Batch of 4 targets.
Target 1
Amino acid sequence: MSNGKITIDGQVLDIVPGKTVIQIANDAGIGVQHYCYHPGLSIAGNCRICQVEVEGWDRPQISCKLQPSDGMVVHTQSEFAKDAREGTMEMLLVNHPLDCPICDQAGECHLQDYSYEVGQGAASSPTAKTNLPKNVPFGSKIVYDAERCIKCTLCVRFCEEVTETNELAMAGRSDHEIVIMTSQGEFETPYSMNIIDLCPVGALTSRDFRFKSRLWFMDFAESVCTGCARGCNVMTGGRDGSFLRMEPRENQAVNKWWMCDAGRLGYKAANVASRLEAPLVRNADGALVQVNWERAISAAGAALKGAPGDVLIDGGATLEEMALANDLAAAMGGKAKYAAATGEGDDFLVVAEKGANAAGAELLGLPRAKKASAASVVIVERGQHITASMRDKSGAVVVFAMDGEHVPDSAQVVFPLPSSAERNGLLVNCDGIVQAISSNTAIGPNNLADPIELIEDILGELDDGYDWRGRDGVLASIRALPAFAKVDFPAGYEAAGVGAGS
Amino acid sequence: MAAKKSASKKSASKKSSPKRGDDGRYPETKILSALFDVKDGWKLAVAKKHGAYKNLEKALKSMSPAEVIDEVKTSRVRGRGGAGFPTGVKWSFVPTETDKPKYLVLNADESEPGTFKDRWLMELDPHLVLEGCLLCAYATGVSTIYIYVRGEYPLSQERLWGAIHEARKAGLLGDKIMGTDFSCEAYVHTGAGAYICGEETGMLESLEGKRGHPRIKPPFPAVEGAFGCPTVINNVETLAHVPSIIEHGGQWFADMGIAPDPDNPRALGSSGTKLMGLSGDIKTPGCWEFEFGITVRELIEQYGGGALEGRTIKAVIPGGLSMPVLTADELDVPMGFDALVKVGSGLGTGTAIVMDDACDMVEACENIAHFFADESCGQCTPCREGCHWMEKIFTRIKAGDGTPADLDLLERLFINIEGRTICALADAAVWPLRSILRKFRHEFLAKMPGHTDPHEKDPHAEDPKASSEPAAVGAN
Amino acid sequence: MSVPPESTASVLPQAAPPEAVAFPPKELKKECEDILSRYPTRMAACLPVLLLAQQHYGGWISPEVEAGVASYLEVSDSHIRGLLTFYAMYNTKPAGRHEVWVCRTLTCWLRGAEKLRQTALDTAGVATCGTESDDGKFLIKNMECLGLCEVAPAVFIDGQPHVNVTPEKLTELMEACD
Ligand SMILES: Cc1cc2nc3c(=O)[nH]c(=O)nc-3n(C[C@H](O)[C@H](O)[C@H](O)COP(=O)(O)O)c2cc1C
Ligand code: SF4
Ligand code: SF4
Ligand code: SF4
Ligand code: FES
Ligand code: FES
């Protein structure tokens, strides 16, 4: 049975129980501005920027709270609605320091966007602005500016409703209202940095990211955090080879809108000075020297022919990489195994399993390496899964590593491994959900070879009859495995052979 | 109690407002205020002699809760806290079938400027207040009463606590009241200085130990109020009316005062009596009880003693600070809910503030705007930013730095503030300011030497004479 | 891009958290428990308990008392500070031995409140409302309507109302404070 219809900007839409007008409008692609509304938090209705006109009502209504009723006719773009929003914008700007030129939020500030949209360059008054605290530390990671704050209370509600740790509160009243933090000085919640994303203006900034780059100079890519097996969906941001930040991307099945602070800050590993940028081969003097890709591949083939054995792969590697590692081990008559760390989990997002693709490895039938054992090949991104002792005791001759710190002395040939923000591929999270990481070309050294191609090339060295399959072919063989018969692949990977990557 | 007896119990047809005396004086009617002049009337022993709690006994022993609600509905008593909502209707919204506890929160925050009537009731007849609360609790199935008294009323708190202790000792409060199955507790909860906690949902938040940020409605308190449970909220004076309504019947109350207008569904009438107060520029400020019908001018001249020596009255806010002003020409209107709305103002709390010709209206606006700016809870953008902005503009005009464009800016702010917030504080800020600006525009322009009014015929003024009237509007 | 200098102070770790007083002290224990018994939640006791604490600890709530009350009522200290800075009757700074409230709202203003405020400030020897006088004797607070408008102008000294106050009477009252 139908719940009735509502007309928004001329579109006749179904009323969905539990959804307010703003959600119905947004679902239909009618964007309604909002600051204090967030679908994951309670409705505060305080900012008043989402006002719309409802036919027959003489006051503008806030669409974030407005319950639709059958036959209701709403206008978001009428003069009346626009005037109401413009009036609110004017109020917001009367005390807002117009410091967009030095504000980190510039470019993703909703106030800046909307004030542009509603045509208010500045509030229409020479009235003196209220002075409020600036540059206030909220723990060690966040900086608060009360003058920029529009008191939407999203950050406070997040700490009350999502993490239930209540570090933040509103203080003062009237136009001296500000956000304050507990005198404990540090957030108890490991999810605090989500408030930076929530903040619709530049009032909460990441100390880590402050002043690093203007937004419009950065490149972004949709990816997945590999900090633990939850696999929070993220947007990576980089510029000129540096990984600058990671932000959560909404996925209701995985991380809703959030991610943990440790995961968010995990990007730093990609920026270490010791990152490998070219293949290396050990020379007669025992030193690792830079060579070109072809030489490194043939040297790897030779080294493995001389010392065949197992392949030890990082629990954060992709399904495709793990499948090829399996093939590589088979070609040497050995086995592929994966290593993954376990640690603390909580009852929200962070899980104890740290191997971002441990579930994928299990589906592929790879055994989990519990302690150090011999291997000819080690594929290690960061050191958390394949520990120093595992890697050193492996005696591996061919090593894929992101940075030089993780190369054992036994290595004869070393391939630089792109970080997870620079690779493409699939991961299976703790709940069996298959998700794609994708490469952000603005991150990492230039011209790093895709490990998929490298492993295939090495397979070619070991087996004259090897038939190169490419990423799509590898995927097809994965999908053909009985263990994957019932596994859903993300859009774009639905039909085997239609890989998103190279 | 003389007045109670003299009030005719059965009157077939609506009688008109009480007769003015030969001298034209509008008489007082002492129902709520019956004990105001009685020595120690706040003590149980004295109050009982004057009939305290006998109406509670009558209700508990001979009426069902639904019958109590019916009498209150019949009385057409409207809320005395400012909004004038029909009390019986409000009570009937409280769900009867619920497994949650129900609460009554008595609104004794009385922070509306110019308002002190509830304080008189609490200090002089706390048992009447408590009896009213218990009747409401019985009618709506409430088992816990919180009396939210503003922190600045130490004597009211003391007297109410005293009444609670006395009543509990006498079996009038607590378990099995008067031997019936009705049990109910009452506590005084102390506010700590915030006007906004008089707004009913701000009060609930404050009661729960939070900042007094009004809640966004729905849900309404009757369904989800204090601690997430169904809650009745009424003003002190509203509930103080209930014992006599139970004694004499709702019809008796409805027959007093001003009848509803059958042609206007929103004019619900002003039945019964009302404590009315006066403060400001008059000779004898105070608080009196009248059957509805007295005009603002009668109140000021007959009870307030008129203007101070050598002065003339310029403007009156009829009910607290939150209502539009009346000019001296507009005072021949009854102090009633509908009559005042009809002339563009409102009864509010029924306690008027009088300003005389020594009052500079620009400075008065600055003072009023400061109050609302100071007391805005800070949640909503238009109220938080707008009230301060208005204050700053008035300060600018006062200092001689204003221009006529500021008056247009103010008009725009009024539009963008009124009706665009979570609670009515923002409306309350706009109403007095807008009415003063429109009715005393010349005073604002007088502070802008060298500027002429660009709107010679003020397009905003609903009353064309308001802006062109010479300075001495009050002279008559 | 020009990078504004970041004040080093804000980068440094914050001051150590205040050391909470043991709350409630013996003298307040019974009353606090009595207050708690009236409400279904501990949080609801915040306002009355803070008023009690303020009286007990010399007229203001220090960060240490704030922390003590917070842990007693099982709420965060930021919640308590949110209350202290919202309600006009709490002080978060030393409040003098005598607290004088002068009403500033319309009726009192019409009846001479501005003169009263000036008299109070002059007698106390402070320049502005809200700061304790140097000798620690007075705190003058500008308050909104105290509900004594029929006897305006009104003043409270140490919680007790005084009405129809003239500047002379106020000076006398304040001089009588020790
Ligand atoms: C800003 C604001 C302040 C208010 N202050 C008071 C008050 O001090 N006392 C009061 O009884 N009602 C006050 N009210 C009205 C209450 O919200 C509510 O309508 C009233 O308590 C209901 O009781 P009644 O129906 O008996 O009048 C205020 C409303 C607003 C918007
Ligand atoms: S800091 Fe940001 S999120 Fe928090 S209240 Fe201010 S504007 Fe909203
Ligand atoms: S919960 Fe796990 S996947 Fe999500 S952000 Fe944190 S470390 Fe990354
Ligand atoms: S209108 Fe003003 S007082 Fe009312 S909720 Fe909004 S900000 Fe608070
Ligand atoms: S988004 Fe609707 S009021 Fe803020
Ligand atoms: S205005 Fe001062 S007591 Fe009411």
Note: The pocket of iron/sulfur cluster (ligand 2) is lined by residues A 149-155, 179, 198-201, 203-204 (CB under 6 Å).
Target 2
Amino acid sequence: MKVLVPVKRVVDYNVKVRVKSDQTGVDLANVKMSMNPFCEIAVEEAVRLKEKGVATEVVVVSIGPVQAQETIRTALAMGADRGILIQTDEDLEPLAVAKLLAAVIGEEAPGIVVMGKQAIDGDNNAVGQMLAALLDWPQATFASKIEITGDKAEVTREVDGGLQTLSVDLPAVVTADLRLNEPRYASLPNIMKAKKKPIDVKAPGDYGVDTAPRLKVLKVVEPPKRQGGAKVESAAELVSKLKNEAGVL
Amino acid sequence: MAVLVIADHDNASLKDNTHKTVTAALAISGDVDVLVAGQGVAAVAAEAAKIAGVRKVLVAESADLGKQVAEAVTDTVVALSSGYDAVLIPATSAGKNYAPRIAAKLDVAPISEIIEVVDASTFVRPIYAGNALETVQSSDAKKIITVRATAFKAAGEGGSAAVETVGAAGAMAHTRFVSDEIVKSDRPELSAAKIVVSGGRALGSAEEFQRVIEPLADKLGAAVGASRAAVDAGYAPNDYQVGQTGKVVAPQLYVAIGISGAIQHLAGMKDSKVIVAINKDADAPIFQVADFGLVADYKVAVPELMDELAKVGL
Ligand SMILES: Cc1cc2nc3c(=O)[nH]c(=O)nc-3n(C[C@H](O)[C@H](O)[C@H](O)COP(=O)(O)OP(=O)(O)OC[C@H]3O[C@@H](n4cnc5c(N)ncnc54)[C@H](O)[C@@H]3O)c2cc1C
Ligand SMILES: Cc1cc2nc3c(=O)[nH]c(=O)nc-3n(C[C@H](O)[C@H](O)[C@H](O)COP(=O)(O)OP(=O)(O)OC[C@H]3O[C@@H](n4cnc5c(N)ncnc54)[C@H](O)[C@@H]3O)c2cc1C
């Protein structure tokens, strides 16, 4: 079975982003970029499926600028077999991304798609669900455990109140939550090997889907600043202030 | 112009997120209907009918809807969608699961976790873990939106909307519900609680978390939260996680104990009215957002805090 893993290049999760003064977006010049943490978890899961003999091939797909090749290389160094880059400098919306991925899946015919539940830049938490809808495949989102037997996947999901387990027929889309696994560090030999693995470079136009934006960003501003930083000396002072100053007790 | 709100409920009772989402819906249109999709939800529908400003309550029932299976909710909502210009969904884990599926079926760009309605097609939403706020305008004829409930006041009671049964999607062919593991608790629900007490990695074990955090929460009538580090380490269940990828809370009082204040954690609690932090590291970033910071070892500070609270009658 082939596993397809879409991966996104995003601002590194340690970077505290700053809003541009002209309010058109956030300043990404000279900022460290990395693979979206949830995508890393998805790649790890796919590679583990291959190591367990459940999967035969792991294909990663990224839609983004030429530098997204680095993100694909990271996945290849973790153990994925080959990559597809749909190169574009446009910031595509989840719907357009889902349509492009659906087109790739039409060609690749994977047995399962494993992907991150959310990208930490747009925080949309949408592409996986939309992809499943476009393909008319079942979806199992926010996965903390995936077990594949035959043509079914049993997926434990993190939901409000606890956990839910679903059984879905394959092919299906599964999105990874933080506790699915802990991604490995790529070893130096694997990083070297990854350089020789193939990456196919495509353009959105190759797939003939409508990627026109539906949303217009009117402005991006900083959230209101909190006036924090005050300290208290003791538990007694804390209780007195909570009761008398803040009135929250 | 009419708006459909999908109710947040557990088949037994209606959740306050619904009232807050109705407020967001009323900012778009005066014609707001509420869909209660579940199983055995007559009582939930009766509660929804009492929300002020609601025109009609629609009820769809099936076993799959009772488990909020995304495919079932999607098919049910898509069948109703021709009568609505917007569908508003509370951004719970269930809502986040099916909203994008509905949107894709309707060829619409979903708008996630809005915190403000500017006008019927313009909304404000946080991006980058809340470090930036984006104002987006949608050109889609129909809007599919999830709503961050903490950003809206709850709509009042006093309505008397008619309740109507609508068609539920048939049984799902490719997705089967297997089991639930829902944590039962007598405490207030995390995302709706007035006070939240959260513990972090500092607690060191599940036993310590229970010994320190839970009694303090009980004393304050608070819900219990946790950092991701505490959840990952197994000190607290997964649905306690507060943050970018956990729950977003905005209580009157948030007490962070042994939590450093990573941006991903702050994303889930920095809109709380009053923030208290107890941390032994005076430079921990949590203090930058805390109204009352206490630099102390929690092992000393929490027992003292319990005593002081007892002195004021708590
Ligand atoms: C996606 C992701 C999520 C994480 N979440 C948490 C968390 O919730 N809590 C927590 O305490 N720690 C988390 N970590 C680990 C954390 O980033 C540090 O690795 C860890 O805290 C050790 O810190 P350090 O100061 O030794 O290393 P750092 O100074 O943080 O890291 C040094 C360098 O090592 C590399 N590196 C670090 N982690 C990885 C990795 N996983 N894969 C490849 N290269 C890596 C990077 O190039 C980094 O710049 C996470 C790491 C990643 C990648
Ligand atoms: C993609 C992604 C998503 C994430 N989403 C979330 C999320 O939703 N929610 C979340 O919380 N995190 C999230 N994280 C993880 C986040 O980056 C931090 O790693 C995490 O919040 C750290 O948890 P912590 O503050 O409990 O632990 P630490 O950062 O280890 O802090 C522990 C604190 O306890 C203090 N301490 C230690 N001993 C004592 C003592 N005896 N008394 C008092 N204080 C003491 C220390 O000084 C320290 O400040 C995410 C990370 C990534 C990469």
Note: Chain B has a mean pLDDT of 96.
Target 3
Amino acid sequence: MARKLNTRALAARATRQIIDQGRSLDAVLPSLFEQVDLSAQNRSLLQELVYGVCRWYGELDALAGQLLRSPIRNKDRELHFLLLVGLYQLRHLDTAQHAAVAETVSGCQQLNKAWAKKLINGCLRSYLRQPPELSADAAHLSHPKWIAGALETAWPDYYNDIVQANNQRPPMCLRVNRRQGSRDQYLEQLHKQNFSALADPYSSDGIVLQQAAPVTALPAFAEGAVSVQDTAAQLACDLLAAQPGESVLDACAAPGGKTAHLLERHDDQLALDALDISARRCEQLQATLNRLQLDAHVVNADAADTQSWDQPDGGYDRIMIDAPCSGLGVLRRHPDIRHHRTAADVDNLVAQQQRLLHGLWPLLKPGGRMLYLTCSILPAENNDQIDAFLASHGDAMLTELSHPSALVLSHGVQTLPGVHEMDGFFYSALTKAS
Amino acid sequence: MAILDILVYPDPRLRKVAKPVQSVDDNIRQLVRDMLETMYDAEGIGLAATQVDVHKQVIVMDLSETRDNPLVLINPQIVEQDGEQEYDEGCLSIPEYYAPVKRAESVKITALNPEGEIFDLQADGLLAVCIQHEMDHLKGKVFVDYLSRLKQDRVRKKLLKRQRAPAA
Ligand SMILES: C[S@@+](CC[C@H](N)C(=O)[O-])C[C@H]1O[C@@H](n2cnc3c(N)ncnc32)[C@H](O)[C@@H]1O
Ligand SMILES: [Zn+2]
């Protein structure tokens, strides 16, 4: 038999690919799970380690810097990440300390760097004897400077709550498929199987699980009884407020979370076009619809290039633009975003969003509603974006939105992680003059 | 002493069934020494004679961190087993692949030691997994046999590709 599989070494490899090599967490973990089939227990440990190191990288890296006499050489970068994996366990998990140290140290072997055992062991033990002092803004440390700066400028009153929430494990939120049963019925099924689950106070289709579980463990998941979706994303359906018989465009639809919610709510009474520019993501969208046994007209196109795809005569009653954005409202769910996003990306995204708003506005019927939303908490992508749009479109009127879980801004509503117990989403509704 | 070649899945010789050792003599003791050296060299925790293309019922193991606590089983037999556990197994004949396998939580075995003396052993946890894994080899079985067709095909293809393009 081969020696024991070392999960810490796997986590070191994975985090290095994500943080140093710019690969996305959503690509790295599945491909790892494909290479080595792990037991459920090792799988969730690996996931915990990878997410944790991505979240706390800034802090852990600073600790490592103080513990190492000289930095680990570039060709041994995996060892640096192995050390961070070890420090993460000691600082943030309640794994038994000696096991955490021993397993991390023997990870050197799996990385074919057995010579480093003493080094890793020494650092971890010296951490346990006397953790180095970090500056007071340790939480902020785990955000790149430009992100911390942008958040502090945008939300001076909420800044601390936001950055802290970004480093916590978020709850697992579900959306019940109303076509297959009520929320109460599904809650009952969950309770029968000993899940601790609560009705989401902020979304009438939502359920919050106290503890994350693999979707395959959820009752009737494969049959489409529920989907995983944050509460803040579930607001879209109500705020779009589509009526039976209307024509609706979901312009940036993949992988189909909100498309599916609309269809679950309105049965077959909407004529829904679901667009996405990415062919691969259109496949995911179709897979979502198949699982939930829903039907929409899926189109792979650039929504803003309205010449390139067909629209109903007279346009749409409702248009939803779930725009490509920085994702700075969902850092807690996607801990790799902070390592990949740059300030220059934001400028580029603001331009794409503007192009979508401008390009799609002519397709809205007089009296119709356009719902613009992002999972960002940067004003440039949100409030300021709509402000600029209104200034250049005389026939656009702001429709006031309100929601018990959101801040009301001049041009829309905003949820904030750590302030409202959900992801950070921005919503704005525009009505066209008739 | 010598480091022996380890057969790599899906080599058909891994399917041969090993015969009981008739007498534990110097030849067998030499085989045990070579197998231990081979196992330590490959950084494994267990090796069955089948894996080095010797089809006799001989197994060597060492589960210690310090790599200085060898266990030798000749003609092992399971006399009792109990419970269930799942463990991510790997195999020196199936490099760089791991997958969860369910096995008995504890086993009681009898075997001969390198002096030819019979002994009993009660094992649980990883030791029990390793004993069952190695005894499977003696029967011509490997751990991927417990996995789905799909996974077996994937492993087979991956290893065949590796053998064609070594050290790529
Ligand atoms: C925030 S995601 C949408 C999430 C989706 N609405 C859901 O709820 O599951 C943004 C999507 O917009 C797509 N996209 C970006 N630019 C686009 C464009 N010009 N036209 C259509 N889709 C676009 C991206 O491929 C991405 O899938
Ligand atoms: Zn084996």
Note: The interface with chain B takes residues 1-5, 35-40, 42, 102, 106, 109 of chain A (CB under 8 Å).
Target 4
Amino acid sequence: MPEQEPLLDIQQLDARYGAIQALRGVSLRVERGEIVTLIGANGAGKSTLLMSIFGDPRPSAGHIRYLGRDITGLPTHAIAKLGIAQAPEGRRIFPAMRVEENLLMGATPLGMQHIDTDLIKVFELFPRLKERRDQRAGTLSGGEQQMLAIGRALMSRPQLLLLDEPSLGLAPLVTQRIFAILGEIRATGTTIFLVEQNARQALKLAQRGYVLVNGAIRLSGSGEELLANPEVRQAYLGIRA
Amino acid sequence: MSLTPTPLTSAAGPTAVLRQAVLEAAASFVLALLLLGPIVGLVLDGYQIKNELQRPLLIAALVALGRFLFTLALHTPSGRFWLERFSAHRGKTAILVQSDSDRQHHGWLLLLFIAGLALPFLANKYALTVLIQAMIYVLLGLGLNIVVGLAGLLDLGYVAFYAVGAYGLALGAQYLDIGFWTALPLAALLAALFGALLGFPVLRMHGDYLAIVTLGFGEIIRLVLNNWLSLTGGPNGIAAPAPQLFGLEFSRSAREGGLPFHEYFQLAYNPLHRFIFIYLVLFLVVCLMALVVNRLRNMPVGRAWEALREDEIACRALGINHVLVKLSAFMMGAMVGGIAGVFFATYQGFINPASFNFFESALILAIVVLGGLGSTSGVILAALVLTILPEVLRAFADYRVFAFGVLMVLMMIWRPRGLIQPRRRAFDVEGL
Ligand SMILES: Nc1ncnc2c1ncn2[C@@H]1O[C@H](COP(=O)(O)OP(=O)(O)OP(=O)(O)O)[C@@H](O)[C@H]1O
Ligand SMILES: [Mg+2]
């Protein structure tokens, strides 16, 4: 056994939707305190991988270990209790509920005992949300909704934060702002696994990255390595070799 | 398990709260039964000891219900506030803000409450029956509002639980010789069980499909009641007992061994007494339910119901146990429907399956929608409007249903989101 086992260790993971095989033998690893990014084209299986870490869909083969413990096949709510949280693709905030109620919902796996301090922390991270805490979440701008989705995930005090395309549909400046905040979140000791289409910024931010093609890991390496890789440059950064 | 509340776990998630409440209620039920069984259950009658098991069962059920509500109450903001007053460690917890307008609100509510209590004494028999029916629909509206308004699960067969409650009283009286007061908690429990029975198979369903299945469920219950002649009497119906006040009956002449209410208090016999009594009990139950439902909305369980309505996938992504949340909504709603059914049966004195057809489900749904999906006060107002308005419109004789329809359409144009928009309350967080 190594000195310290990785926070998240995925081995030979397969996942399928009926006849469609969405993941083929995916293996990857996230160490404590890292930001690890997963990039890939539309339909590569990024969201599927993120969701199957959360038990939905259940992997058809392979193993997911979290803190050395096999969590493959655990129900979603049990996995959330272990300290994994996610901000799903497309934000999926609760539009009719107020900003603050959305945040309270995020605290569900933990119970309500820390909500005071945790709300303050989230509002420090996202002062915008504090100004709008009584606003109906559906009326927030796209960037604010993404902040809310991330803040909501943080309310369960996760050790591992799973983010699915936080830059989706956001202006470059807003994306930069959100990525800067991801850096701050990492500085507080939360590990981040970031799924992105925005390969350039994601690879700049991340320590390590993986490239997913057709449900299988094609490349892996440090953020700089991948940014310099000709295949990545051509396919994901739009630079002709 | 001790009988004192377990402090400091006061702030857990909805599932934990519910599980704790159910466990503690079950434990207190068993404890109460063990304790009271020999004391209350064995009655010395002449030289014989009679075994009257229903008495300790009733008391134990009440204790369990009380314990359940108490545990839930301790998780409301004000419950936690009181809990913290009594615990040495003062945790930091969100406390509801009570603004001035809220306090003014309370004044009005108190006035309404007193008016509601005084009303039956001013009413004639006709008005009284309309009032009782209105209150029954308020109760039904409150119950269905949990399922449709809060949790967003379109239930077109809600009348099934109403029927379960009503037949629970009638059949219980016929076969087990239980009275109104025993039937009330038991029928509520039974209806909640039926709620779970419906809930399990439809866990994965949404929208239209859910609506169809619940519609079928409502029809199945009605058809069973209609066709199981040997048990229910089928379309001929079945009699349901009137409630008693501490053993006093509301009849002109007492059954064997009974004592009529008017003789005991040396009043002239008045058939209104029975209706006034039913109304008063019903009114108190309605007030209690309105309070409970309103409280639930601001508790983790209630918020989880609303979150489920908003986005089920997001709920799963947040690690909310959607199975438990859905089932609890179905069960709470069904329980309230069952209670309404008991009141309906005791008020009618006689029930048959024809009272529990799809039209009833549709009417209750109309109450919830007209009230503004999710708003407690809206549902109450809509229930009153939809039951009292047709009576007022009796003057228009043949055009009554037409006028009713026109008014409904006008109301939906004037207020497309229902009479009253649900209000969202703010939290006060220390240090913000
Ligand atoms: N619920 C589902 N049922 C059936 N097939 C699905 C389902 N969800 C995803 N798929 C399929 O699985 C494959 C991977 O989809 P996935 O959503 O994981 O891609 P992605 O990499 O996240 O794409 P994007 O960047 O567009 O979000 C796709 O071919 C998709 O059609
Ligand atoms: Mg995706």
Note: Chain A touches chain B at residues 54, 56, 75-77, 79-81, 85-88, 92-98, 100-101, 104-113, 115-117, 119-120, 123, 130, 134, 136, 152-153, 156 (CB under 8 Å).
